[in-house]
Specification:
Number of strands: 26
CATH class of the largest domain: Alpha Beta
Shape: globular
Distance between the termini: 65 Å
Radius of gyration: 28 Å
Number of domains: 3
Strand content: 15-25%
CATH topology of the largest domain: Metallo-beta-lactamase, Chain A
Number of helices: 13
Largest sheet: 8 strands, mixed
Strand order of the largest sheet: 7-6-5-3-2-1-20-21
Helix content: 25-40%
């Protein structure tokens, strides 16, 4: 195969839901689509998040970062990359730009952001980037078509096909048809998140009746949802106002998104009966709607705090109802189930999407994909934005329904296209994500491993005093019953340090004591704790 004129590298967002990053590359330029975060699972011990390792990208190469929308898994890592490239531009829709600016300001970073709209075109080394307005669960969401001579690549990572939305323009199928269908080589990259849903994803419009029915009840109503879903928030605000109910919010992220929405003239919460949490005089009023962050069971979210009875003003009781206007993201089901049980123990009535139509996903079911596919005819179809199982099911669905050449790709795989429009799939060795901890610091994977061992096995600290020929033992995370055996353990370790290793160098003596410490504690505990030895 001759030299590539365009390479497409899937660096994040496949094999997982999160860490979205795709790189289109020519000889002279990069086009990076999104740079987001992946929230860690519980077992990685209080990491902030994970991001794609971008260190293989050439910092000298001209680079455009194109943001599709403002969700954290698409913008959350932007602060890590803004100073990496020498020649770097960021394009983002208005709402996402407002959110990114707040992040950069918090970190004292400066990076100009150019706001694009649906009619704009962006140059990319002989190609044109055409933004495509799509419907999703956050305002100002776009896909894009990268178009060059004989080539069109349609890339929409997050969408549903809503042709009659409440607060925005419909999904723009017409523009996709006009730009995409005219090329000889037509590559299609589409969302896999809801591929297991055989139906059509509901519109936000479809939720109006059931939300109105529940919110109109004369009882205190709690609602938990994604703070970024400004359209859902607007619906709740409108319904509360119609029933003359006051509304408040618990959790910082809702206030952050409401401020950004006000800035972008999407929703002005001051036009409604909104009262800040600190200004509530009667938190038990049955005329109150309380919005809660943490719909995914986040440890610091308001929902989790209230379910643990840890909030000063608001306590669940038998007269309350709570609406879960969201669904658990894959992997969060157990956390949400525990919260259901805790809330139920207070006597509070829980309503979920299994009881009423109170949530609409932002991702396409199979019928959404059919609506789009019936209007376009890709030569190559690549499932993206989903866990490995979802990608495989997406491929099977398309192969069954359509004649496109469907390609199963994973993180760090590449598509290489030459001037004759020939395609080669290159399977590359994946790179481990970067682990971000504390004040935006990268923490090494081996140190996470150490932390895991300390958390599961406990730790023993031995301080050897070379001058006095003595040692001190302390420990954390071990059963209190070990105290009964400390005198015996002390004698054993003292003998090892100053009899068996009396002629050893201090560092060799310390290592001998460390090994013996783990052995002797195992005799009393049944397992080896971590041992740390200091010699002075």
């Amino acid at each position: 195969m001759s030299k590539s004129i365009l390479s497409i590298h899937l660096m994040g967002g496949v094999d997982e839901i999160g860490s979205n990053m795709t790189v289109f590359e020519t000889e002279k330029e990069y086009l990076i689509i999104d740079y987001g975060i992946l929230f860690p699972m519980d077992e990685v011990f209080e990491l902030n998040y994970l991001i794609v390792d971008y260190s293989d990208l050439n910092p000298k190469k001209k680079t455009t970062l194109f943001i599709t929308h403002g969700h954290e898994d698409h913008i959350g890592a932007v602060s890590h990359i803004v100073n990496y490239f020498d020649n770097f531009k960021v394009y983002a829709p208005e709402f996402a730009a407002a959110l990114i600016r707040k992040k950069l300001l918090q970190r004292k970073l400066i990076c100009p952001i150019k706001i694009y709209k649906a009619d704009d075109q962006i140059n990319f080394d002989g190609f044109k980037i055409h933004p495509i307005h799509v419907t999703h669960s956050i305002p100002h969401t776009y896909g894009l078509i990268v178009k060059g001579k004989g080539i069109s690549a349609l890339f929409i990572s997050d969408f549903k096909v809503d042709l009659n939305p409440l607060y925005e323009k419909p999904f723009d199928i017409k523009k996709i048809k006009e730009l995409f269908n005219t090329s000889d080589l037509r590559l299609c990259f589409l969302d896999s998140t809801n591929i297991l849903n055989p139906g059509k994803t509901p519109s936000e419009r479809d939720l109006l009746d059931d939300l109105d029915h529940l919110i109109s009840k004369k009882q205190r109503t709690f609602i938990t949802l994604f703070s970024s879903n400004i359209h859902r928030l607007r619906t709740i605000f409108e319904i509360a106002k119609n029933h003359n109910k006051k509304i408040t919010a618990v959790g910082r992220s809702i206030y952050n998104y409401l401020e950004a929405a006000k800035e972008c003239k999407l929703l002005n919460y001051e036009d409604f009966n909104f009262i800040s949490e600190k200004s509530i005089n009667n938190p038990n009023s049955d005329n109150l709607v309380v919005l809660l962050t943490g719909c995914q069971g986040d440890f610091m979210g308001a929902l989790n705090r209230l379910s643990n009875n840890e909030h000063k003003s608001f306590k669940f009781n038998e007269n309350d109802q709570i609406i879960f206007s969201s669904k658990p993201i894959p992997g969060n089901g157990k956390k949400i189930s525990k919260i259901y049980n805790k809330i139920t123990s207070f006597g509070t009535t829980i309503y979920t999407d299994k009881d009423y139509l109170v949530h609409a996903s932002g991702h396409p079911g199979q019928e959404d994909l059919k609506i789009l596919m019936n209007e376009i005819n890709p030569t190559h179809y690549i499932p993206i934005h989903g866990e490995t199982y979802f990608l495989k099911k997406h491929k099977e669905f398309i192969n069954k329904e359509y004649s496109s050449n469907t390609i199963f790709m994973r993180n760090f795989d590449s598509i290489l296209i030459n001037k004759d429009l020939e395609i080669k799939i290159q399977n590359n060795e994946p790179k481990e994500p970067l682990l971000i901890h504390g004040d935006d610091l990268i923490i090494e994977r081996e140190n996470i491993s150490k932390r895991r061992k300390i958390a599961s096995q406990g730790v023993v600290f031995i301080s050897i005093d070379e001058k006095d020929k003595s040692l001190k033992i302390s420990y954390e995370g071990l059963p209190d019953s070990i105290k009964e055996n400390l005198d015996k353990i002390y004698e054993v370790l003292l003998r090892v340090a100053f009899s068996e290793h009396r002629k050893s160098k201090p560092q060799d003596r310390a290592e001998g004591v460390r090994v013996k410490t783990r052995q002797v504690f195992k005799q009393h505990l049944g397992y080896r704790p971590i041992a740390m030895v200091h010699s002075k």
